[in-house]
Each structure stands twice: as structure tokens, then as C-alpha cells.
Design a protein that fits this description.
The complex is a heterodimer.
Chain A: H1 4-10, E1 13-16, H2 19-23, H3 27-40, E2 43-46, H4 58-61, H5 63-80, E3 85-88, H6 91-106, H7 108-121, E4 132-135, H8 136-143, H9 145-153, E5 161-165, H10 194-201, E6 205-206, H11 225-241, E7 246-249, H12 252-269, E8 276-279, H13 280-287, H14 305-310
Parallel strand pairs in A: 1-2, 1-3, 3-4, 5-6, 5-7, 7-8
Chain B: E1 14-16, E2 21-22, E3 25-26, E4 33-35, H1 47-52, H2 68-72, H3 74-78, H4 84-92, H5 96-100, H6 114-118, H7 125-138, H8 146-161, H9 166-176, H10 184-194, H11 199-210, H12 219-243, H13 247-251, H14 253-258
Antiparallel strand pairs in B: 1-4, 2-3
The chains are: A alpha/beta, B mainly alpha.
């Protein structure tokens, strides 16, 4: 097991890969991540001249192209920026970088294609093990920790009932996350708890929520909207039934999906739900005393301002 | 053979007798249902090879038919006909005609990876679903599904510029699938959020639409990726053309003889 203080030191300054979603629809996640890093004195250095990781679509055209695109990002981080840790807050990016890492360690054909394409594209090919990919949850859990957050937030989220929603790409499939399911200090793929731990440290009351890793239908949010709406409605209703006032998210695709299909469920199926949707970084930002506008809360579709004022979180 | 689990058999293959006595034993009542005997002659012996050549399908041969994938499946829970275990069985046994009955729903896999996560044989059933949907379109059995159109639009943008821009993906997708841009729920979202956003944001979005986000020096990567896509697509076409028979001939070998 890695010494916890070593990890805190290692993650105090990390490479940052925002990805396309955080520059577009998921902008609130980007600004809130940067705002809490600043507040907590953590270093975030953006991977220079990055490209898309391949998202959820490119692999359906060819899985090896997705491996190449993700490997190009890691190559950029390692060879151009001299980074050894890359933090990706987006579940899709995080998943793809981890998948590329796994494939490049196990699949000779993947190595061959990545080497060929990298040479043609004029950059060094990324090799497995040159960098460590982590999620924003891994980063905060180790760099600040629950104790650190407890001290700095003084239980500011007290009385706020939260359902923690992790989605698919953060935990599945298990084989690309060898560090998970390794005992009590590691993340669990069946019962993830890092977000629960961080928000609890900030004083929030986490409700017992059975659909933490259910699917929101994000891949088909536009191409099969009715299926997505059904899946999202399930999650929203389960959160409300669990007594949650807010669903905390850690993925821009899930977050936007929950928000969009909350509106769509009401428009198309007449099913109204009132639970709010906020990025966990926005919630931690509020707990650290950062203003809602600085955290991009006004750019969310889900309007949580009334609740934030009611709970005295401004 | 009388059967008990009637829900597993398609209704047209079931035969129920009101009163039946076989070799002096009365088998009417609960045990009166039989599977209609049939002879299958139109196997596509290369079906498994064809699917294995598609993106994501290469591990299909590992399947042991345990059914964990279907048991874990997100889509199966809302559409019981969506059955990865069964489709893998049909593909591996070459039962193309049976598979084609479900051709219009196979693309609906939401890529939640529950199947790949749970699979004890590392089949990666999620990939097999995508491969099968790809194959259906390549063989001309289905028009490109909305999901297929979305994947291609998305990939095209990345290959061209290294990055994607949300509004362009949305706009091109709705145009290509012939859907109106002004969907009631999208306009409701735009109005709700528009009221709260500062002018700076509107300008930022307009900027992104005119000056698309791009990765610097991407040209060489674009050329390499275009060549690679061309190469793998040609390989897939070759597998289908050398192994598989065109759909009409597979269904009606008699006509080929007559011609």
C-alpha cells in the first residue's frame, strides 16, 4: 500500500486534462475545479495542446483509434510537459486514458498501431507506465483528504441531503482500474465512496442511494433520447425517494444528461422532479466559501440558487 | 418434448395441444406445450468471423453462454427483447435469419459496460453489440442508426481538428437525422439558462462556433488517421465480401440456381 502522505505530496501539483466537454457544456465543472485548486493551494498545470480522448464514439468506428487519441494526450503530458500525473475530471476522459494505459500494457496490436500512428503524426509514442492517470476524486481525496477538508470547511454543508451519483465510466469495466477494489483505502467498483467521503467531510448528509453506478444513457442522449430520458428519470426519482435535495455528479456527460432529461421528462412524459444537480466540485467550492458565480453554478441548467440561499451556502 | 419454460421460446415455434395422450399417458394440462420441430438449413457459417472482424467484436469466440451480460444489462431492464447472451449464441451458431428479427434494436446498447464488467470470460459483450450494429449497417440490413450517424459525425470532427465542439456536433447530428433544430425541450433549456447567463458567455459560445477549437499541428495526425481508417474499413469490407453471401442469396439459394 502506498503511504498516504507520499500520495498527498505527489498529487499537490498535477497535470490537468480538462477535455472537450469541460470547455463546452461542462464548463461549470472546469471553473469549479480550478477555483477549489486555487483556494486549496493545489497546482494544476494544463496539458499543452491536447486533443480529444475519443469520447464514447470513436471506438465504435475503431477501438485502436481511441487508444491512439488517448495515448497522444498522455504522450503530450509526458514528453512535452514532463508530467508524471495526469488528472482528468471527466469520467469519459478518465476512462479512456485508463483504457489506453491498460491496452498498451497488455495488447501488442494496440502498441503496434499507437507506435505507427504516433510516428506518422510526428510525436513520441506513449508507453505504458510513463504517467499515472487519476480522477478529480482521487486527486482531492489524496491531496487534501477528509481531515484537511474537515478543517477548512468547518462542516459548512451541514443539513444538505446529497445523493452521490458516479455513473458508469468511473468504475467499469473493472480490469482497466487495477488500483480499485484493493482494500478499505481504495475505491470500490461496486460501492464507490470517494465522493461520499469528501462531501461528508464537508458536513453533508449523504443519503442511502441505490443507483450510484446506474447508467444515465449518456451515450444515446441525442440518438435515442427516449431511452435516456427513461434512465435519467429512474435516477432522479430514486434520488428523491432517498430523500436527497441534490444529486452530486463527477462527470460532465452524466451531469448534462441528468439536467437535460430532467427538463425533457417533464416536457415529453409530464414527469416533474425537483431534485437539483450540482458538480461535487461546486458543492466543495461552496463549502470552502467560494461564491456560486465563481463556481459556474449559474451556468448549470438545473437552477439550484434558491436551495443554496435557503441552506445559507453563499 | 414437452416444455415448462414457455417464455424462452418464440410463440410461433410453440405448439399447444388441448388434450393429448402419448403412449397411453395423458399429457394435457401444464405439460401440453411442445417446441415445433424444424430444420434449419440457411446457416451463415462465417457469421462469427464477420462479427469478429468488426470494431469491438474480436472476443466473441470466448463466450460460454453464462448469461451474466443479459442479467446485468441496462437496456434489457427496459426492453426484454434486448438480449446480448442470446444474440451471441445466434452469431456463434450462424443463425443469421434469427438474429435479423432483432436488427432494429441491437444498436440501442448504451455502453454502460455492466456486461464487460461482469463477464467471466472477457468477451467484452458491449463491443460485440457495437460490432453487430456496425455489421448490420455494412451488410445493408439496416440503414445507419442514429447512434451510427452520431459516432461518424463525432469521429469525423476529431480526425479533422483533434477536438470537438458541442454545438456543431448537435447541429450536424440533428441535420443528418432530419430532426428539427428547435426541439421543444432544447428551446426550454436554452430559455431557462439564457436568462441567467452573462453576455460574455454568449460571446464565448459564438467565438467557439466561428473559430472551432482545434489541436495545433494536427495535420499530420489527420492524414495518418484518415489512412488508418481507410485501411481498416477496407479490411472489414474484404472479410464480408469474401466470406459472407449477399442477403438475398443467403435467404433464397434457389433463385441463384434459377439465374
Amino acid at each position: 500500500m502506498v503511504d498516504i502522505t507520499d500520495k498527498a505530496k505527489k498529487y499537490a501539483s498535477v497535470g490537468y486534462y480538462p477535455g472537450c466537454a469541460l470547455e463546452g457544456t461542462g464548463n461549470g465543472y472546469d471553473v469549479s475545479t480550478r477555483a477549489i485548486a486555487k483556494k486549496l493551494g493545489l497546482g494544476l498545470r494544463e496539458v499543452s495542446n491536447w486533443n480529444c480522448c475519443g469520447a464514447m464514439e470513436v471506438k465504435n468506428v475503431d477501438p485502436k483509434i481511441q487508444t491512439y487519441l488517448s495515448a497522444r494526450v498522455l504522450s503530450q503530458a509526458v514528453n512535452e510537459d514532463r508530467m508524471d500525473v495526469v488528472m482528468a475530471p471527466c469520467n469519459g476522459c478518465y476512462h479512456n486514458l485508463k483504457k489506453a494505459e491498460h491496452d498498451l500494457a497488455h495488447d501488442p496490436k494496440a502498441i503496434e498501431v499507437v507506435e505507427k500512428l504516433s510516428t506518422k503524426a510526428g510525436h513520441k509514442a506513449y508507453k505504458a507506465g510513463e504517467a499515472e492517470t487519476i480522477h478529480a476524486l482521487d486527486w482531492l481525496k489524496a491531496a487534501v483528504g477528509e481531515e484537511g477538508l474537515r478543517e477548512r470547511t468547518k462542516g459548512k454543508l451541514a443539513g444538505l441531503k446529497i445523493a452521490n451519483y458516479y455513473g458508469c465510466m468511473y468504475v467499469r469495466p473493472r480490469h482497466i482500474f487495477p488500483e480499485k477494489d484493493q482494500g478499505p483505502d481504495s475505491e470500490s467498483t461496486s460501492q464507490p465512496h470517494f465522493m461520499d467521503d469528501l462531501l461528508a467531510a464537508a458536513g453533508a448528509e449523504n443519503v442511502s442511494f441505490p443507483l450510484k453506478t446506474a447508467c444515465c444513457g449518456g451515450a444515446h442522449t441525442l440518438s435515442d433520447s427516449d431511452t435516456s430520458t427513461k434512465l435519467v428519470l429512474n435516477i432522479l426519482q430514486a434520488a428523491e425517494a432517498s430523500g436527497a435535495e441534490v444529486i452530486a455528479t463527477e462527470c460532465p456527460t452524466c451531469h448534462t444528461g441528468l439536467e437535460m432529461h430532467q427538463v425533457r421528462a417533464e416536457k415529453r412524459f409530464g414527469k416533474k422532479t425537483n431534485v437539483k444537480v450540482l458538480y461535487f466540485t461546486q458543492l466543495l467550492g461552496l463549502a470552502l466559501g467560494i461564491g456560486p458565480r465563481t463556481l459556474g453554478i449559474h451556468t448549470n441548467i438545473s437552477d439550484a440558487m434558491d436551495l443554496i440561499i435557503e441552506k445559507r451556502l453563499t | 418434448m414437452p416444455i415448462h419454460e414457455k417464455s424462452l421460446i418464440r410463440p410461433e415455434n410453440l405448439k399447444t395441444h388441448d388434450s393429448l395422450v402419448i403412449e397411453g399417458v395423458d399429457v394435457s394440462g401444464h405439460w401440453s406445450t411442445f417446441i415445433e420441430p424444424r430444420v434449419v438449413t440457411d446457416y451463415n457459417e462465417n457469421l462469427e468471423d464477420e462479427i469478429a472482424a468488426m470494431p469491438g467484436g474480436d472476443k466473441i469466440h470466448r463466450c460460454w453462454q453464462c448469461g451474466s451480460c443479459t442479467n446485468a444489462c441496462t437496456v434489457n431492464a427496459i426492453e426484454p427483447r434486448f438480449n446480448p447472451r442470446y444474440w451471441i449464441y445466434l452469431i456463434r451458431t450462424g443463425m443469421e435469419a434469427e438474429l435479423l428479427r432483432d436488427k432494429d434494436i441491437i444498436w440501442q446498447c448504451v455502453s454502460c459496460h455492466k456486461c464487460t464488467h461482469i463477464c467471466p470470460r472477457d468477451v467484452e459483450p458491449e463491443g460485440v453489440m457495437k460490432a453487430t450494429a456496425h455489421w448490420l449497417t455494412m451488410k445493408g440490413y439496416t440503414p445507419p442508426s442514429p447512434s451510427h450517424i452520431f459516432d461518424e459525425e463525432f469521429t469525423h470532427q476529431i480526425v479533422r481538428r483533434g477536438r470537438i465542439e458541442d454545438t456543431e456536433v448537435l447541429h450536424n447530428f440533428l441535420r443528418k437525422t432530419k430532426q428539427p433544430l428547435l426541439q421543444d425541450w432544447l428551446t426550454a433549456i436554452a430559455f431557462a439558462i439564457g436568462k441567467r447567463l452573462p453576455v460574455k458567455w454568449g460571446l464565448k459560445m459564438a467565438w467557439a462556433q466561428i473559430f472551432k477549437p482545434r489541436t495545433r499541428g494536427w495535420d499530420k495526425a489527420r492524414v495518418a488517421l484518415e489512412a488508418y481508417i481507410h485501411e481498416v474499413e477496407s479490411e472489414r469490407k474484404a472479410v464480408i465480401e469474401s466470406h459472407g453471401r449477399p442477403p438475398q442469396q443467403a435467404r433464397a439459394p434457389m433463385r441463384e440456381a434459377a439465374e
